[in-house]
Amino acid sequence: MEAKTTCRWAALSLSSIASVFLPDLLGREDAQYEHKLVAVSTTGSNERAQIWFKDNKIPDPQGIVVYNSWQIMLEQGDFDIVYISTPHPLHYEQVLKALQCNRNILVEKPATMNALQYRKCIELASQQGVVLMEAMWTRYLPATRYLQEELLPKIGKVRRVYSDFSFPIVGPDLQDTSRFLDKAAGAGALLDQGVYALTWADLALNGVEVGETNVAHASSWSVTGRPSEVDDINTVVLTSKGATAIVTTSMTIPGSSKPPFYVRLGAQKAAPSVRIEATEASVAIPFPPIRPEELYVQWYGYAHLNEDGTEKNEIIKKPISGWGIWYQADVIAAAVFNKQPGVIGAQESLRVLGWMDEARSLAGITYNEKLEQV
Fold it and tell me: With contact defined as beta carbons under 8 Å apart, do 294 and 315 qualify?
């Protein structure tokens, strides 16, 4: 068997999402590349980093260089791709610095606070001849790719989409100091969860042919009983030529907030999270919409009916290996090692960021203007 190419990663921040992504990625036998963590930056001590490596079962921790300055890591580190997983208000500054250092970048979603910031990042990435990618990992899962490549071309014209990502992040046990309630850290259901729900709307409306899509309506209710005004229950309506998408989020309902975070994220829900209704068939995607493994298809176009004229139902299973965040790593690694510089998914990311900008404006969701500056 031919040896795999090694892709060396640097992690800018030992964040909670990094503690999911990196263990999911490193040493994975079914990946196309041999992914290896070689550098991290942390505001804590070297000892804290070693504890983090141990707690997350990071292989070969003695071979990882620990930096106490993310700037120095970007300037001096020896790695192929940097993974940025700090709170999103910090992304713009850190991505710009990484690009100035000619780094290939995978940055957590949302990539920046607004579309204008990311547009500036895209321009610089193109000038520098590196690879930049927003970590919208759901787009690269087997079920998502099957939907886009096999189902959407067959189900006819999409007419209506329902896309929801709601689950109880905020409960009575969550402290007011949590990142999920900190506006300075970009907290809010629209940016934290709406980025996923709007991505599904984009896949449904623009997965086959890209057309003009506009935000027709946006409304928002804040989390109650908390000192900070953080958006919670959001509704965004998108209109495209002959199609409508209704996108919703909540960080308080439905479900119990008692179980651990990732248990809540895997709980069964009474209704599907995403429903795509087209002229020939509809596709339903169960909760959680961030990592689908099954697609429920109901065919009702005349060419697909049962003999008695009733709808034909189909369940398509596309199992995920591991948690699934690692699939995107192979995508950016392929671009890096095949010397294909550019911004992966640039237009998709810009569309979603732009819709969030419009929705925030219509719904009155605001952040400190310093977080939005270009």
Answer: yes
Nearest to 38 by CA among 79, 75, 70: 79
Between the CA of residue 172 and those of 121, 168, 256, what are the distances in Å?
39, 10, 11
For residue 361, the one-letter residue type is S
d(CA 199, CA 188): 17
Between CA 165 and CA 18, with CA 288 as vertex, the angle to 5 degrees is 95
Query: Mapped to the 3 state alphabet, what secondary structure does 134-151 carry?
Result: ECCHHHHCHHHHHHHHHH
- Looking at residue 235, its pLDDT comes to 99
Helix-, strand-, coil-residue percentages of the chain, each rounded to 5: 35, 25, 40
pLDDT > 80? residue 2? no
User: What DSSP string describes 306-323?
Assistant: -TTSPPEEEEEE-PPSSS
Which CATH architecture is the domain 6-135+325-345+367-372 placed in? 3-Layer(aba) Sandwich (3.40)
Dump pLDDT digits (tens) for 55-73.
Answer: 999 999 999 999 999 999 9
Contact (CB, 8 A) for 245 and 163: yes
* The one-letter amino acid at 278: A
Mind listing the pLDDT tens digit for each residue in 249-290?
999 999 999 898 888 988 888 899 999 999 999 999 999 999
pLDDT in tens, 316-361: 999 999 999 999 999 999 999 999 999 999 999 999 999 999 999 9
Domain 139-317 has what CATH class?
alpha beta
What CA–CA distances, in Å, run from 134 to 269, 342, 345, 374? 28, 12, 7, 18
Residue 374, C-beta contacts closer than 8 angstroms, at least 6 positions apart: 92, 116, 117, 120
Domain ranges across the chain: 6-135+325-345+367-372, 139-317
Q: Which candidate, 38, 34, 43, places its Cα nearest to that of 14?
A: 43
Largest CA distance in the chain: 69
Whether the per-residue pLDDT at 11 is higher than 70: the answer is yes
Q: pTM for the full model?
A: 0.96
